[in-house]
Amino acid sequence: MIISSTSSLSTCFLVPSPSDLHIEDGCNQHVVTDRLHSLQKTHVVEIRAQTSFRDKEQKQKLTQSLTLRGEMAQKGVQLDRETFSCSICLDLLEDPVTTTCGHSYCMNCIKAHFDEEDRKGIHSCPQCRKTFIPRPVLEKNIMLAALVEQLKKTGLQAAPADHCYAGPEDVACDFCTGRKLKAIKSCLVCLASYCEKHLQPHYDAAPLKKHKLVAPSKKLQENICSRHDEVMKIFCRTDQQSICYLCTMDEHKGHETVPAAAERTEKQKELEVRRLNIQQRIQEREKDVKLLQQEVEAINGSADKAVEDSEKMFTELIRLIQKRSSDVKQQVRSQQETEVSRVKELQEKLEQEIAELKRKDGELEQLSHTEDHNQFLHNYPSLSALSESTHSSSINIRPLSYFEDVTAAVSETRDKLQDILREEWTNISLTVTEVDVLLSPPEPKTRAGFLKYSHEITLDPNTANKYLLLFDGNRKVTKMNQQQSYSDHPDRFADWCYQVLSRESLTGRCYWEVEWREGEVGVAIAYKNVSKAGNVNGCFFGNNDKSWALYCDTNSYIFLQSNVQTDLSGPPSSRVGVYLDHRAGILSFYSVSETMTLLHRVQTTFTQPLYAGLLLLYNGDTAELIKVK
């Protein structure tokens, strides 16, 4: 196939195929990628040559010529589009009608326009605003309709809407002149992007059908070798980069290279495997998310029920206390009324007796003033005898305490309730904090990991045996041969239990270290209510079910719990690390030196807050809670 240029150029091209192209009539050999485009009705053929001409002026003239012809053709088509478009819907005329003013519209468009103006009684042309009275009778313009149909058959389309044009973020068609349309495809062979119209030759022309079309891309130039200006179709596995065929002859010579398509196929397989793994993980995670959502709903439901039930029980307690308060009040008032009634009854008797005595006293006084002796003696026997007197000795007035004993009894009950609530509240609070749906994180592997859970712990003087001396901020303890001047306290270890507990309770995840010098030391944790006195077998750490202890000396380790002894092996050290995960029920003891060595781990269930404990056996033995950093 011979395609001649314009008269201004003497060069012609022989184009057997896009991959096998050469120039006749004296032009230097070069690589050209043809693009054949059919412009409706004009049959204009555009050729875009991506090459390097020796004569740059030739290339420029050819480009200008093709551009000019394309612009002329496109402007002609654009004129037809505007001519046969409805000014209301901006689409190609459908069942065209023409008003008396000469403007044409789609039948449905102008009818809808006139329908809106029916209320005014005056109808007008949407373009020139000419009025019509009465409403025009619309008749289809048969000639115009036939012309539009004929133009449709030849490929005429309505003018593109604004959204069809390329914006700043869009990939523009490389072959549109003037305002460019959005590209719908990019060609990896031509290294250009096309709108729907200019892409058509890739579907029609046999040589172009083999080109690789992809989604519109702004990165086509990245497929050009920056050094040789050639398309990069080869992949260097040695350097893991795309190269052109010229690169294989110099800087990548001797490297392992494969066609980019082959490498893509292999990588595509790897990608599919990775995608499959990812999709499996997604499914697993979705199951986990669903499970966690169910857990959230279960937690919320359980918490709501616990709150509701707790409120009911506390309300019952409050109601019970209020009832007891009302009962006490009623009893006090009843007893008050009874006692007041008794006192008033006695008071009335006394008042009556006083009145009678006063009356008698008046009679006697009157009689005493009688001057007539005979009259006095005559009236004296007629005086009534005195009634039996209410002796004051029968009135037993209690000391002025009245109902103060009731107040004292209520106060005592209140104190007991407060003590019960205080003790039970710790258990309630611990039960709440032990609600842990998710598994605890794994136990740390390094000392740095343990130190994240380090706790500042001090010893409680109120628990220290009187033969133990606390000092250095209550962090150190020494076994003495004489008792210390500690006051009595119910929490104090007594007798032969030379032990002390920490002031701070331990919940959650905690880590602390104990260091000792000489002798033997017991490093323990215990409940607050561990036995404080009695025989050694009962109160020593580890000899009961309320404490766990590691006994250490310079050569050996022994673990003791519920009076069951376990001999342990481990590197000798004067420092022991203790790790506690209260919720998980994990207690671990480590020998600490340059490294950390696990000595013993306990898996159990803790039901109360725990306290760190120390036990010293011999005079002069010293242990210290280390300030770890």
Automatic annotation (TrEMBL):
GO terms for biological process: innate immune response. Residues 268-302, 333-370 form a coiled coil. Residues 86-129 form the RING-type domain. Transmembrane segments: none annotated. Keywords: Coiled coil, Immunity, Innate immunity, Metal-binding, Zinc, Zinc-finger. Pfam families: PRY, SPRY, TRIM_CC, zf-B_box, zf-C3HC4_4. The keyword Metal-binding applies. Residues 220-260 form the B box-type domain. One of its GO terms (molecular function) is zinc ion binding. Residues 437-629 form the B30.2/SPRY domain. GO terms for cellular component: cytoplasm. This is Tripartite motif-containing protein 16-like. The gene is LOC109203668.
